[in-house]
Amino acid sequence: MDKQQAQLDELKEIRSLMEHSSRFLSLSGIAGVYAGITALAGITSAYVYLDLWNNNLSYYELINYSKVSNNKYGNFLFADSLIVLSVSILIGVFFSIKKAKKIGLAKWDATAKRMFINMAIPLVAGGIYAIILFYQDNIALIAPSTLIFYGMALLNASKYTINDIRYLGMIEIVLGLTASVFVEYGLVLWGLGFGVFHIIYGLSIYFKYER
What we know:
The protein is mainly alpha-helical and about 210 residues long. The protein has one domain (about 25-210). The chain contains 8 helices and no strands. The protein has helices at about 1-20, 30-50, 60-65, 70-105, 110-135, 140-155, 165-180, 185-210. Helix 2 runs antiparallel to helix 4 (about 70-105), helix 2 (about 30-50) packs antiparallel against helix 8 and helix 6 (about 140-155) packs parallel to helix 8. The relative contact order is 0.16.
């Protein structure tokens, strides 16, 4: 019995070593929670600035009243999204490094590079596409497009890290496609995808892997 248990323990250790070498395991659930809170702060700022609670116009109607060159609403939304993205990336990097130190993993190894490259390609493409939409006055479609490209990035990266982010990626894509049809709810769906579901995902990862 002891010999059988020893063999099982050895197999578990081998499996763990293989998993550590092939998957990036330093993603932090807490980082997801903070990123979600940051996104909700960004969406709240947008609602306050656009005064959508008191305005009779929808989000889509409001930001399409004037050209981008003099559209202060479009400029604000663009800057707001850049700030949310920058803060979220910094949060993710900080907590990933912290988790890597805690569990004794390298901060930047071959697996991390593969995950970063596979995630960066859709994100960069999505960022360029969002800029194109901005300068073509299709501001209302920026929120849906960022959800879709972000979801694709998560699906791409899921091959190199925990599988749970695959489900988050699929949710983001569905929300992005929905927001493309119901553009007047673009901000709400963006806040749901980047805010609420990020928090749910972060808590799930934390209680499943980090406690």
